[in-house]
């Protein structure tokens, strides 16, 4: 893979919302639903909307079913109150429809909200923005995952899919500790992952390029590039540019990891966030390669853990992922 400058397209002007029917799809474990209902009642009345509908997710159905119920009940906007898994599930059910997704960030990740630069810890502001904001079309990624038994399941993701360090870290994270300690729970998992000397061995084909064979530590496909803890993993990724960014980590020594940390935490995390820093020259490093595309097919030599938007999705032996440009409408605050 070679580094490729990210292609960008101009975003359409946001669309002001019309009065419609709101619904809230919420994860009862993640949110205070009584506080949400009180805030929703205030904002719907101020905006002249009818009474909002409420639908609860469950362990068996993280959001697709309740979203389908909300659409059938006439919802034109669905406010998602939950973590990244709930957002991903609701978006999967909304893709390609004319129903708008509004975010009420909750949990430890809030990955899509971070990448849209939305307010993370102000419930009243988020709900007010749902009723008074504008609509923005963003890309949504699709993936077909092949399992060891040859079965194939299909999903959507909004932020990132990954094999390697990120998927193994998630698989090794204690869920109870994560609920109590948030992202600190990943520290133990990171230590375990760095002790794992196994590498990924796979063949991949990006768009119409020729197939390649690779041995690497990790591969990540990003619809957008910001992660918690102020980590800008893919600085050129944009949620509405019509392409995803592909990142391959291939450190072969301690020096390789130093290159990666310098690139991600210093160049991406510090320099890329300032006007002066963006003017400074940057250089490619052997341990980390970026490219872009719209379709990627990959086959592994053995099953490996895979993650979508921060949630583990079991083991994959192969997958095909592609982008649907402008496939999801998201409510953002009015200018």
Model description:
By secondary structure, the chain is α+β, with helices and mostly antiparallel strands. It folds into two domains: 111 residues, Probable inorganic polyphosphate/atp-NAD kinase, domain 1 (Rossmann fold, 3-Layer(aba) Sandwich), CATH 3.40.50.10330; 186 residues, Tumour Suppressor Smad4. Helix content is 28%, strand content 34%. The N terminus is likely disordered.
Name a few traits of the molecule.
Tumour Suppressor Smad4, Rossmann fold, four-stranded parallel sheet, 10 helices, elongated, 335 residues, alpha+beta
- Which class of the largest domain in CATH terms? Mainly Beta
Oligomer: single chain
How much is the radius of gyration in Å?
A: 20 Å
Order of helices and strands: EHEHEHEHHEEEHHHEEEEEEHHEEE
The secondary structure category is alpha+beta
Given as residue ranges, the uncertain stretches (5+ residues, pLDDT < 50) are: 1-9
Morphology: elongated
- Beta-strand residue fraction: 25-35%
Helix content: 25-40%
What's the total count of β strands?
A: 16
What is the CATH architecture descriptor of the largest domain?
Sandwich
| CATH domain topology of the largest domain | Tumour Suppressor Smad4
Q: Domain count, please report it.
A: 2
Report the biggest beta sheet as strand number plus sense, adding barrel if it closes: 10 strands, antiparallel
Helical stretch tally: 10
N- to C-terminal distance: 39 Å
**Overall pLDDT score:** 85
